[in-house]
Amino acid sequence: MIQKFRFGTPIKTDATVAELPVIPVTAAKDAAALTKFFRLSLENGFSLSLAMDDADAVYGLGEANRGINKRGYKYVSCCTDDPNHTEDKVSLYGAHNFIMLIGQESFGLFLDYPADICFDIGYTKQNELTISTDGTDLDVYLITAEESATAAPSSRPAGNFAESAALSIVRQFRTLIGHSYIPPRWAFGYIQSRWGYMDEKDIRRVAKGYRDNHLPLDSISMDIDYMEDYKDFTVHPERFPDLAALSAEMKEQGLHFVPIIDAGVKIEPGYDVYEDGVKNNYFCKRADGTDFVAGVWPGKTHFPDFLNADARKWFGDLYKRLIDAGIEGFWNDMNEPAIFYSEEGMEDAITKASELMKSKDNPDLNTFWGMRDVFNISNDHADYKRFYHNMDGNKIRHDKVHNLYGFNMTRAAAESFDTICPNKRLLLFSRSSYIGMHRFGGIWTGDNQSWWSHLLLNIKMMPSLNMCGFLYSGADLGGFGSHTTRDLLLRWLAFGIFTPLMRNHAALGTREQECYQFEGLDDFREILKLRYRLIPYLYSEFVKAARNDALLFTPLAFVFPQDKTACEVEDQLLLGESLMLAPVYQPNVSGRTVYLPEDMLFVKFTSATEYSMEPMDAGWHYIGCALNEVALFLRKGHLLPLCPPCECTKQLDYTSFELIGEAGKGISYELYTDDGYTKNMEQEGKYVTLTL
Ligand code: GLC
Fold first, then answer.
1. How far does the centroid of ligand 1 lie from the alpha carbon of residue 195, in Å?
2. Which has fewest Cβ within 10 Å: 23, 183, 190, 307?
3. For the chain, what percent of residues have pLDDT higher than 90?
4. pLDDT band at residue 150, thresholds of 50, 70 and 90?
5. Cβ–ligand 1 contact at 555 (below 6 Å)
């Protein structure tokens, strides 16, 4: 059951799709269902707090740091461009205000509020949960598990799982916010990316590196250097003289280009996007009505006002310029929005720096530390108060709606795609997001680092992203910042072959990390080929999850809530109905310990086509898994269908499947399939029963 409580007059976010009766709250007594669990305070902003039992677990928050169980830290929903997201960071690129407490009493909470929210989950006091905002205008949705689910998970199947309280709450939340975006099937192919592919020669070299070495590949994503001076919707005339011809040439090889689009529009007289934006008042404005200026990659930019429906339509329609050149996929970036500096911020810093220099002993150590702070002006909250949006004629200061910006950039693109190519699915993913954006596109998890800890973070984040509707998602495999290593990349790929978005991306200046840059190419080739063998299963489970508002990656705790050990295991995940994953995420190890909550079949791939199978009893096991191997576990009574290996999705063969599972027991799998790119999924889609 979902109850919707309204505090004050919230800003319309379009996060949800379901219409629910509204319970207006003017005093605590109006929110009895909430105050049954929480202490509610409307003094000094809004806050809800409760004492947690030792056994309570707290899940959710989508793209957030740390573990699946979020207890023990605090998190602030504030879309932030932070490429150095170490364990202490409280905000990442997305703002996903859904949390769920599972314990004696279980419930979920979605706070539809697009400014900063702090979730203090045992940080200030170890057993206290406090959710607080500065403002008091928000909608709060309280979601309780359906009766039959709160009892021991029993007869109510969701997918193939008995529905636990957690699964029931997530399903209801997902129904509230609408079905997830479904990309074209080729988007499940492997994507190679790098910031620093400068021209078409570089692109051809990457294509050749993969094709000549028979390393499977479906797409090359193009970073900012394809543009002319980082101007959105332009193509550099010398470096990419004929994008349409290049795109056609690549398509011949089964390859797609996926260009980046940045939020900021370069200020340059004569550049039509800039001129049109200024003329039509499509850019965010300062209090005095002038267009706000922020420094991003192109230098000085204006931010399109994506919260203004007309500006959204204008910006979305501009993607047609690239679509007309044969482009079928995009990634939207810098849309928190990232602000390296603002003119006002820079002036303030200079004033503060000269103040520091004035005192008589200076420069001294304090001046030095002070100077460092003073010039730390990127992504400064002060800037969020310096510009305004025009939302349906209302002037709204950016800090009050900050978390909606990236969402609406992606929505702009998706809504225009519906008119530009009404019956074709395009690939679209974004860096920044808010709840509700999952209906329009996927996300990648931003600038991680080539660290083993970020591989583990990727593993733990996947189910939380799914809880918030982001099914098409993944991390920069191999790590974006810092130099990767062969073993880290191999282990990361061995997990990445299971994530819907499978993209290897790296920063300018880091070691080249295309698979063919490393020795022992066979190891990479076999892992990538295995990905292609898995695509029919992944695509089938993905579409089922999208349509049924279910999870693709499920924490063990949600399926085995009675098993205390399973509830604490966070480095293993269920994937779809058949699989459990236990990725290796540490260096210099030849295997790992795995906890089996039930008897399973251990399947170890030594190449894309060779594997061993070993039935294992429930409990702890040590499994060997070398650098070039992929381990997975098949659940009893389930099958894993694998198609023949191939080098791009164009070659996927749906006519002959190898079925892994217990033979002779009549076990079957319902494989969903369709043409992979049109939107007629209701008509085109079909289920094929595969039986072993
Ligand atoms: C941002 C993006 C990254 C991209 C870079 C240059 O840091 O997150 O993926 O490579 O900008 O465009």
1. 7
2. 23
3. 93
4. low
5. no
